[in-house]
Specification:
Helix content is 0%, strand content 34%. By secondary structure, the chain is mainly beta. The protein has one domain (20-109).
Length: 119
């Protein structure tokens, strides 16, 4: 009887294993974030140094949920003001988002969001 091929699976990833970027902005502010990213599975990231993975996502309360950031932008007259929007996969795609007034260092959730039903 022929021996069957046995497949073995090993997880060799460490740290960040997946990041699906939706939007990237480079705020024109000396000494500020090099990048601000909206991304699926993490909402978003503020990248101070492009060679170092940020330790906290934007809107950290969404850290272990299944939220997705879809868009990020900054105010041209004041690049310290940044807004990010997205959605929560498991709660009827409920909108999530927030605003930062200090170049993405701290964030405040939007108090309300306009919901558009595209169905």
């Amino acid at each position: 009887m022929a021996q069957k091929n046995v497949q073995s699976w090993y997880n060799v990833t460490q740290n960040l294993e997946e990041l699906c970027v939706s939007d990237v902005k480079v705020p024109p502010l000396e000494g500020g974030a090099q990048l601000v990213i909206a991304a699926l599975d993490t909402v978003g990231l503020r990248v101070q140094d492009k060679d170092t993975l940020p330790s906290e996502p934007i809107l950290p309360e969404a850290r272990w949920t299944v939220d997705g950031g879809t868009s990020v932008d900054y105010c041209m007259k004041d690049p310290n003001t940044i807004a990010l929007v997205g959605f929560h996969y498991c709660i009827n795609c409920k909108g999530v988002g927030g605003v930062s007034r200090d170049n993405g260092v701290t964030w405040r959730n939007f108090t309300s969001m306009v919901i558009i039903n595209l169905a």
